[in-house]
Amino acid sequence: MKIVQKVEKIYNDYKILGEWFNKFSTVGRQKTGGVTRLAYSSEEDEMHRIFKDISEDLGFAVETDGVGNTFVGLQKNKNKRCYLIGSHLDSVPNGGIYDGVLGVIGGLLILKWIKDNNIDIPVKVVAFRCEESSAFGKATIGSGLVTGKVKEEELCNFKNKKGESLKDILKSKGFLTKSYKLGELEGYIEIHIEQGRVLWDKNIELGIVTSIAAPKRFKLSIYGRQDHSGATPMMMRKDALSTASEVILEIEKLGRVESIYSTVATVGEIYETPNALNVVPGFVELGIDIRGIESKSINRVVSELKNSIKRITDKRGLNYKLTMTSSSEPVKLDDTIVKGLKRSSEKLKLSCIEMPSGAGHDAMEFADITKTGMVFIPCREGISHNPKENASLKQLYNACKIVCEYLKEVSL
Ligand code: HGY
Ligand code: MN
Ligand code: MN
To answer: What's phi and psi for 330, nearest 5 deg?
Structure first.
């Protein structure tokens, strides 16, 4: 192919990625410029409808499973062992427009190349529901249901902030709650923004992910006594919010101590009643997110956390209840895929490093059932889960190139 045709083809692919991306980017838009597309909301439904429309316009077969995951492929490969390439289309509240979406449109571009060039590699692209924990307090529910890690009988336990159960929501949306039966897979590959700043700071084009940190999450309820803020002397209070503040700073300290093992500890969610200026807070609920790639380090934070909560509440004379809301183990990704993706990057003269993922991904659900790999592209200043999240479609194109190169190397 002449150089001019090559450049024209690359330009065309960038244009197509841009068009697909723009179709998604207005859904759930907030005044801040961020997007809110919570799992199983009308916004996430809209995202899947757009994915379905784009795929059908390309002549692909589209399948929506019983929990709303969307699978796209060539009709002829419907029942074949295939490579799954995918990610998610839901977001955190007021999040960025690149998280998840890039992995889905990247997979679609690879599938388009396979179809247009008649490359005989069985690939399906998937968009999973409910990857983010923001809606139901548990992440990767859509992919967890497909891989059997999440059981259908658990659906009634997952509740959103309005107290609605996921089971009722699925029923109200006409889903049968029977998820897609995977069958044998050749492998699972996910392209995603890094959501941290290693690639950005080092000015490296691609990250080949070697392991994915996994969360242990807790809900901490602190029971104080709601009192008049003027008439209650300081030494006679049972202030739930001051108690929670001591716990929050202790969690940050524990995370800092273990940060040498890439462990992190965050209190990202707080609920307080009655949240009134002239009332001593009576009740606080915290959402605690501890993650890492070393289980021993995560477990040290968890055990220290329990000791600290007991010490602080005893000292202040308050009761509390600590509930573990989710617990998964860090996952190692497939070495042959890591090496293969590295070979492809070198072949295509794209700079890359091997690195862990601090963020969770749908890929976590596949690592123990099939060969699983992930490719990161940089995001500007490492910002993510934030309206300022930004990434380059050119670098997404590069990630698609090395994944396609790898698939050709191992399949043809
Ligand atoms: O929270 C996470 O790690 C990811 O964004 N689901
Ligand atoms: Mn996310
Ligand atoms: Mn994501």
So the answer is: -60, 145
Structural domains in the chain, sorted by start: 2-212+331-411 (3.40.630.10), 214-327 (3.30.70.360)
Atom of ligand 1 nearest to the CA of 384: 5
CA dihedral 377, 383, 389, 393 (to 10 degrees): -20
pLDDT of the residue at 313: 98
Give pLDDT tens digits for 289-306. 999 999 999 999 999 999
Angle at CA of residue 182, ends 136 and 334, nearest 5°: 85
Among 71, 63, 362, smallest CA distance to 189 is for 362
Give, for ligand 1, the residue of 134, 143, 194, 385 to mutate: max count of ligand atoms closer than 8 Å to Cβ: 385
Q: Which residues pair with 35 in a beta bridge?
A: 29, 95
When the pLDDT of each residue in the chain is averaged and rounded to a whole number, the result is 96
Q: Tell me the CA–centroid distance for residue 36 and ligand 1, in Å.
A: 14
Distance 206 CA to ligand 3 centre (A): 16
User: Which residues does a 6 A CB cutoff place in the pocket of ligand 1?
Assistant: 131-133, 139, 359-360
How far, in Å, is the centroid of ligand 3 from the Cα of 100?
Answer: 4
Regarding pTM above 0.85, the answer is yes
Confidence of residue 178 (pLDDT cuts 50, 70, 90): confident
pLDDT, one tens digit per residue, over 7-19 is: 888 899 999 999 9
Q: Over 70: is that where the pLDDT of 177 sits?
A: no
Are the CB atoms for 92 and 134 separated by under 8 Å?
yes
